């Protein structure tokens, strides 16, 4: 009997996925973070593995179990994630940047627990490194997919991010739509690439979103992207 050959469009490809939130410490017991759960990124890591890729998952703190057969690098802050990503970049073919990276961090994190005082509190914040922006500057042949979470004018902002960060594609989700964004098992996204494609993916599981986008990226790589 003839054996059906597996569908492995990412065979031989090295895929790096970043997922989850970052934590930016205020003191030893407190941090700034966001609502990212890592579901979208972990779905990408699992699907890329199923499609034949060698996968490295760079993860912020989440409570999802590590996908089998995937190299997982655990990180905490935006700075940790930046260092891990830049180390993996030279030996990668595809970079999928789903992580919700903090834009700011406390300028002077404290070594001792902060004690409360009368009155209000201000914490001075400074910018973190834009990891996707740095990838955009450093990349050679890698196909880089950025993400954008927007609450207004998703397409306009996504197009600006595509150009500004020199990404090959941006996947944008309007986080104020029902069934999209943080913590849900489903997503509604638009995939935008440098050739002007604006592809709307209707409401579906994050697994299916990951699958469809990975097939698209595999095809764009095959056709020779710039
Ligand atoms: N990103 C990153 N490093 C940061 C901030 C964002 O790599 N310090 C990446 C995210 O992982 C995502 C993309 O940039 O893939 C877009 O993130 P988003 O927060 O939507 O855009 P920003 O450029 O941070 O702009 P803003 O938050 O002002 O909309
Ligand atoms: Ca941001």
UniProtKB/TrEMBL annotation:
Q: Which reaction does it catalyse?
A: N-[(R)-4-phosphopantothenoyl]-L-cysteine + H(+) = (R)-4'-phosphopantetheine + CO2; (R)-4'-phosphopantothenate + L-cysteine + CTP = N-[(R)-4-phosphopantothenoyl]-L-cysteine + CMP + diphosphate + H(+)
Q: What does this protein do?
A: Catalyzes two sequential steps in the biosynthesis of coenzyme A. In the first step cysteine is conjugated to 4'-phosphopantothenate to form 4-phosphopantothenoylcysteine. In the second step the latter compound is decarboxylated to form 4'-phosphopantotheine. Catalyzes two steps in the biosynthesis of coenzyme A. In the first step cysteine is conjugated to 4'-phosphopantothenate to form 4-phosphopantothenoylcysteine, in the latter compound is decarboxylated to form 4'-phosphopantotheine.
Cofactor, how bound (note): Binds 1 FMN per subunit.
Q: List cofactor names only.
A: FMN; Mg(2+)
Residues that bind CTP, according to the entry? 103, 113, 147, 161, 165
UniProt protein name? Coenzyme A biosynthesis bifunctional protein CoaBC
Describe the family membership recorded for this protein in Swiss-Prot or TrEMBL: In the N-terminal section; belongs to the HFCD (homo-oligomeric flavin containing Cys decarboxylase) superfamily.
Q: What is its EC number?
A: 4.1.1.36, 6.3.2.5
Q: Where is this region: Phosphopantothenate--cysteine ligase?
A: 15-226
Tell me the name of the encoding gene. Answer: coaBC
This chain's source organism reads Pontibacillus salipaludis
Which pathway does this chain act in?
Cofactor biosynthesis; coenzyme A biosynthesis; CoA from (R)-pantothenate: step 3/5; Cofactor biosynthesis; coenzyme A biosynthesis; CoA from (R)-pantothenate: step 2/5
Record keywords, A-Z: Decarboxylase, Flavoprotein, FMN, Ligase, Lyase, Magnesium, Metal-binding, Multifunctional enzyme
Q: Where is the DNA/pantothenate metabolism flavoprotein C-terminal domain?
A: 10-219
Which portion of the complete protein is shown here? 176 to 401 of 401
């Amino acid at each position: 009997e003839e054996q059906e050959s597996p569908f492995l469009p990412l065979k031989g490809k090295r895929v790096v996925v970043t997922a989850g939130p970052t934590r930016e410490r205020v003191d030893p017991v407190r941090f700034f973070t966001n609502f990212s759960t890592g579901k979208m990124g972990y779905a990408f890591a699992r699907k890329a593995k199923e499609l034949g890729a060698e996968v490295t998952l760079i993860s912020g703190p989440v409570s999802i179990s590590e996908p089998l057969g995937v190299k997982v690098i655990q990180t905490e802050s935006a700075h940790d994630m930046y260092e891990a990503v830049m180390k993996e970049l030279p030996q990668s073919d595809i970079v999928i940047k789903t992580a919700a990276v903090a834009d700011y961090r406390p300028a002077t994190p404290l070594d001792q627990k902060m004690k409360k005082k009368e009155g209000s509190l201000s914490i001075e914040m400074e910018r973190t490194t834009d990891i996707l922006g740095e990838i955009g500057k450093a990349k050679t042949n890698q196909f880089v997919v950025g993400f954008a979470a927007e609450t207004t004018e998703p397409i306009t902002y996504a197009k600006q991010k595509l150009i500004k960060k020199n990404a090959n594609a941006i996947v944008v989700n309007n986080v104020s739509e029902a069934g999209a964004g943080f913590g849900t098992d489903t997503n509604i996204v638009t995939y935008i690439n440098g050739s002007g494609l604006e592809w709307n993916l209707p409401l579906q599981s994050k697994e299916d979103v990951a699958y469809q986008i990975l097939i698209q990226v595999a095809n764009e790589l095959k056709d020779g992207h710039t």
